């Protein structure tokens, strides 16, 4: 799993049905790249989280058929970023 | 999921049967690399979209056996690219 | 899916059974890296093709149990490479 | 599989149910990037380990539904890092 | 699939059960990075091989439940490395 920081929400009216009403978050990885993840744990802007990718991302959702390849797995209690 | 911009269509007469009649789009990621994605949401040139990869890409299609590893998951209402 | 160019065939006498008699091609990606792909569409040297990776690579073969992680999905009619 | 070194534990009170009570370790890969992995073998700080990613990461856990994309597969008896 | 060269064996007494008694090899990819792969074909040090990753890596083993994400798929008869 990778460690990323929550940057904000993603507003996206028109999307595939398989994402249901899951919340989408914009995360930033350690290279500064912005990614989109499904959030089943209720993370807030600024939180450090770890994410599961691949098929694990789907299984980490309440509904395993959620069409995601990146899902927040937990909020990290304490974290000092690299560098 | 990753955020990319739609560059255009991909013309490809000779292809595997498992892609059916799905539309193929050329996308550009944040590094400028061009990728090919299946488009079930009707994105247009210039749109910012987010994409699902891996097995989620197949499940994001109306037909889950579609032989894709990258599928557009939604059109982003508003987006400011990095940099 | 990614866009690559066919460089040639791969000669490989000793290989796992699960690849059957599928043709193997050497492809070059946009960074110049050489990769090996299964070819179910009959691509020729110099052709621009797009490739499916992951589980989609197996499903893109006539026999879904083919042990590949990269399969040619189609030959592109026209393509201007990056750069 | 990749070779990484164990840096420490990850403290994470709020996480998805599918990780159960599995221990989480912070690993460092050969580029210095820190990653989070599930540890079913009891690795200690400083150990060199190899890791399985993707669906293999789930199967490497006692409970295959564990929602991980990176799992320690073994502790390496002897290893000289690159460089 | 990727092309890599066999560097040697990996000695690893303590490992997950799901790898059984499969031989583990250290491979070097085209960037010089060292990776660990399961070897069902009997490759030797110095051999050029191609590898399957992801779920294909498991299916390329005699036992598909082998907990690997990288498996040697064949020994290349002749190969001129890049550069």
Automatic annotation (TrEMBL), chains A, B, C, D, E:
GO terms for cellular component: carboxysome. The keyword Electron transport does not apply. The keyword Transferase does not apply. NCBIfam families: carboxysome_B. It comes from Prochlorococcus marinus (strain SARG / CCMP1375 / SS120). PROSITE patterns: BMV (PS51932). Keywords: Bacterial microcompartment, Carboxysome. This is Carboxysome peptide B. It is found in: Carboxysome.
